[in-house]
Design brief:
about 20% strand; four-stranded mixed sheet; about 120 residues; Nucleotidyltransferase, domain 5; alpha+beta
Length: about 120
């Protein structure tokens, strides 16, 4: 039953994003209990433009754990750096079914520090 509520929440967030995206790619966040992942997706082409996660080898060595605010901020900066290299400067933030709080907020702040606008 809980899966239904998270699916509805995710669909509601995506519906509002699509309405105000105006062709911008979206910065999608997935957080598990041990890692955090972010990717920039162009929905018109159905392609991932840039991605970063705390499970990458360089991040695993640099971070204490993939499940804290510091790791989320580092991943936000990394995905922003990769997006700028791919020519993306503006995105819409897709928090999925997660509250804008804690690790999700830290990832967004890191991406803003890295140069992305949203």
């Amino acid at each position: 039953m809980a899966k239904d509520t998270t699916d509805r929440r995710k669909a509601r967030v995506r519906r509002t994003l699509r309405a105000r995206a105006y062709g911008k790619p979206r910065l999608s966040v997935f957080r598990s209990s041990k890692q955090i992942y972010a990717q920039i997706i162009d929905d018109e082409q159905g392609a991932t433009l840039a991605a970063a996660s705390s499970i990458e080898k360089t991040q695993r060595e640099a971070l204490k754990t993939g499940a804290d605010v510091e790791a989320a901020k580092a991943i936000g900066k990394l995905v922003a750096e990769r997006a700028l290299a791919a020519g993306v400067t503006e995105v819409v933030f897709d928090r999925g079914s997660y509250m804008y709080h804690g690790r999700v907020k830290a990832l967004a702040d890191g991406a803003r520090e890295g140069g992305l606008k949203f």
